[in-house]
Design goal:
With 390 residues, the protein is α+β, with helices and mostly antiparallel strands. A four-stranded mixed β-sheet has the order 1-4-5-8, covered by helices on one side. The chain has a four-stranded antiparallel β-sheet with strand order 2-3-7-6, with no helix packed on it. A two-stranded antiparallel sheet has the order 9-10. The longest helix has 36 residues. The chain starts with 12 loop residues before the first helix and ends in an 8-residue tail after the last helix. The relative contact order is 0.11.
């Protein structure tokens, strides 16, 4: 794949990856354990710093302050940061593969000019709001409404499990735009957090994902201008096709967790001795490490395929579901094997393995569970949908 000037998309990727690896190890690795233990929100000044490095705009056009690179370039940065500090990686994930990318792909030129530059610079953030108290995997059961009258949309409803909830400056809210049943009535509208009627629930105390705030977002007669409509009623499939880019980012977070667990286990097995010899000399340890590497590399190849085919556009949904489901389950298994390989040390905070394992479960739940991805895989294979309501 080449740029318009004939240069390769691969040009500069290794340098980007090396710089991200150095940033992760030198700036964020020393802080990650403390931030996790104290549930510290990722500092705003650090987000701005990532913006100043250009890492929040890798996949966005130069017209908005970005680099116009393919999504795979953002994913290599996400992986390197996530090996050491998931909250830092989340900033790059959210801007390059999250709701800002949906605005980039589906929004109007006016919306791109209004929302993207401050997001890319790190001055503001945008979160996606899909799930509700009674609409998680069954997203089409959502009841949040955005009703048009007099050139303004009035938004009412409650969104749950919102990553960066209460922290983001704006929300990409999936809502019922019309009275059409099911997916036919669903679209999306952008709601700024400082509008009257926007409030937040208590911060969630999650098993993992520490440093990434999560809270209910409540809309009570919130008015936004008609120009904030991103996708009208009937655009649910379009929205979820764009959302598949976020699932690429999600899969990369899981890949990073698996790779980090493998890397730490390889070091530990060579440094730690039992019964008078290094652990690496025991056949059972060798078999465990081989299994871990096979699982990590299997997930990596599925992710690379999906990212390569996406380029600077939208990925193939089937390839994304395969990559996400495989990476999510790999991260849980490999981090668990790492914990077993480390023995009692793996159960302590000191070695960072339990933190990897906690976060692995979080990324498997976020963005569509492995169970729902399996259903998506069969639907995409057969080119049909299935009614899960019985």
């Amino acid at each position: 794949m080449t740029n318009l000037d004939g240069t390769s998309w691969n040009e500069g990727r290794e340098e980007i990856q090396d710089a991200a690896r150095q940033l992760a190890r030198e700036r964020y690795a020393p802080k990650a354990e403390l931030w996790d233990r104290e549930r510290t929100r990722f500092p705003v000044e650090e987000r701005r710093y990532l913006g100043s490095l250009g890492l929040l705009g890798i996949t966005h056009d130069a017209a908005y302050g970005g680099s116009g690179r393919p999504v795979i370039d953002a994913l290599v940065v996400v992986e390197e940061l996530a090996k050491e500090c998931r909250p830092a990686a989340f900033q790059v994930f959210e801007t390059n593969t999250g709701p800002a990318q949906v605005v980039n792909q589906l929004g109007t030129e006016e919306q791109r000019k209004r929302f993207l530059p401050p997001i890319i610079s790190g001055e503001t953030t945008m979160a996606v709001a899909i799930s509700e108290p009674d609409a998680g995997s069954a997203a089409t059961d959502m009841t949040t409404r955005a009703k048009l009258a007099g050139g303004r949309y009035t938004v009412n409803g409650t969104k749950r499990w919102i990553s960066n909830g209460s922290e983001a400056d704006s929300y990409l809210v999936y809502a019922r735009i019309s009275d059409a049943p099911g997916a036919k009535g669903i679209g999306a509208v952008i709601v700024e957090a400082d509008r009257p009627g926007v409030s937040f629930g208590s911060p969630e105390r999650l098993m993992g994902f520490r440093g990434i705030p999560s809270a209910d977002v409540i809309f009570d007669d919130v008015e936004v201008p008609e120009e904030n409509l991103l996708v009208g009623a009937g655009g649910f499939r379009q929205l979820f096709t764009a959302f598949s880019i976020e699932r690429l980012g999600n899969a990369t977070m899981s890949l990073a967790i698996g790779q980090a667990a493998l890397d730490r286990s390889l070091r530990y097995a060579q440094d730690r001795s039992q019964f008078g010899k290094p652990l690496i000399e025991f056949q059972n340890i060798q078999l465990t490490l081989a299994d871990m590497m096979m699982q990590v590399e299997g997930a990596r190849q599925l992710l690379l395929r999906a990212a390569h085919h996406a380029g600077t556009g939208l990925p193939v949904p089937l390839e994304v579901s395969l990559a996400k489901c495989t990476a999510n389950e790999m991260a849980k298994r490999v981090s668990d094997l790492a914990m077993q390989l480390h023995g009692g040390n793996g159960y302590t905070e000191e070695y960072g393995i339990e933190r990897l394992h906690r976060d692995a479960h979080g990324w498997a739940v976020a963005g569509g569970t492995p169970t729902m991805q399996r259903i998506r895989i069969v639907s995409e294979m057969l080119g049909r949908s299935f009614n899960q309501r019985g």
